[in-house]
Specification:
Layout (H helix, E strand, L loop, with lengths): L1 H27 L9 H30 L10 H22 L9 H26 L1
Keywords: Membrane, Transmembrane, Transmembrane helix
Length: 135
């Protein structure tokens, strides 16, 4: 089980790297027009929302199985681990964008999404770590 979790973590990091490279090259191949980096920003927003929705659904499924005292197929699932790492990555990118003054702090949906992304990352990664140590 430990090897499975570590393998899923490595595959998750590779997929995140591929996604980051796609966004990098997509940004640099955009035409210099009036709203040059809007495509990159929208890709980030859609990615953040997708990460939070995926993490929330998987955490909800995990909690349902936990409270019903059934065998939990989500505990060491690839998508569960990917979601935890992906949400941590989204929050780190948001934090770096704030520190570089690319984004501003406000009360919008992006900040709420970033907060839930951090919350889901902490819960999912600590749950994965707990199940890793248990085995």
């Amino acid at each position: 089980m430990k090897e499975k979790i570590l393998t899923y973590a490595v595959i998750s990091f590779v997929l995140l790297n591929i996604w980051s490279l796609y966004l990098f090259f997509d940004y640099f191949t955009e035409k210099d027009e009036i709203i040059h980096s809007l495509g990159l920003f929208l890709n980030f927003v859609y990615t953040a929302v997708a990460a939070v929705v995926l993490g929330g659904l998987l955490l909800l499924i995990r909690l349902i199985f936990h409270f019903r005292k059934k065998a939990n197929p989500v505990e060491a699932n690839f998508f569960y681990i990917l979601s935890g790492i992906f949400n941590a990555n989204i929050f780190i990118i948001w934090l770096i964008s704030l520190s570089l003054h690319i984004l501003e702090i406000g009360t919008g949906r992006l900040q709420v999404c970033a907060f839930f992304s951090l919350l889901l990352a902490i819960i999912i990664l600590s749950d994965t770590y707990k199940s890793y140590k248990k085995r």
